[in-house]
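Input record (one chain):
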Amino acid sequence: PMHNPFDTAEMAIGYARSRPPVHPRIVERAKPYLNGSPARALDIGCGAGLSTLALESIATYRYGIEPALG
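The corresponding structure, as predicted from the sequence alone:
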């Protein structure tokens, strides 16, 4: 079976802490291209969920899917 390098709590926390704070800036740049605020947003490949959290400013419901094997 494949090994998931992010399968420990320590790795997940370290990954989340080391990511640059670009997610809120990307969401702000996307806002002009949206027709209002969508009710739902899907983050595919969400990793630690930082980009999913940033979607809170534009969508009522946010869903994050991470295809990494657990």
